[in-house]
TrEMBL record:
Name of the gene: arsC2
Cell inner membrane in keyword set: no
Leading EC class: transferase
CDD domains, A to Z: LMWP_ArsC
Compositional bias (Basic and acidic residues): 101-112
Pfam families from the UniProt entry: LMWPc
Full protein name: Arsenate-mycothiol transferase ArsC2
Length: 150
């Protein structure tokens, strides 16, 4: 089974969604993990939009990447630019693949502003959730394509 870590800045939203999708869609092929170069806690809006899609991530927790240093990862997917720039070196032969997604909390703040409805605030989360789902659905084949492009 392929051990894949989804790495983000704070392990609160994008990496959590990716781990949730991988467990939901690919549990027969991928042993999924998520972590951050910092820990910011689980984003309640990410939990809500994943639940809308039938994926429960409420039991996941925000982890620091150092907590997974002994897992023996095969692939690390950085899902934001900051994580890619700050990605630590992993022991063994873990390959790092960069596949960034927009930051839903940032998009929600920019687009919605104060006084926005809950629907307006959740729209960026839903869009990124669906983009992550499509990416994860293409795994592990998408990782082979990425390694050929490197």
């Amino acid at each position: 089974m392929l051990k894949v870590l989804f790495l983000c800045t704070g392990n609160s939203c994008r990496s959590q969604m990716a781990e949730g999708w991988a467990r939901h869609l690919k549990s027969d092929q991928i042993e999924a993990y998520s972590a951050g170069i910092e820990t910011h806690g689980l984003n309640p809006s990410a939990v809500a939009v994943m639940a809308e899609a039938g994926v429960d991530i409420s039991g996941q927790r925000s982890q620091h990447v150092d907590e997974l240093k002994d897992v023996g990862l095969d692939v690390v997917v950085t899902v934001c630019d900051n994580a890619a720039e700050s990605c630590p070196v992993f022991p063994g032969s873990a390959r790092v693949v960069h596949h960034p997604f927009d930051d839903p909390p940032k998009l929600a703040r920019e687009a919605a502003g104060e006084g926005a409805s809950e629907e307006e605030q959740l729209a960026p989360y839903r869009r990124v959730r669906d983009e992550i789902r499509d990416y994860v659905a293409a795994l592990p084949a998408a990782l082979s394509v990425a390694s050929e492009a490197e």
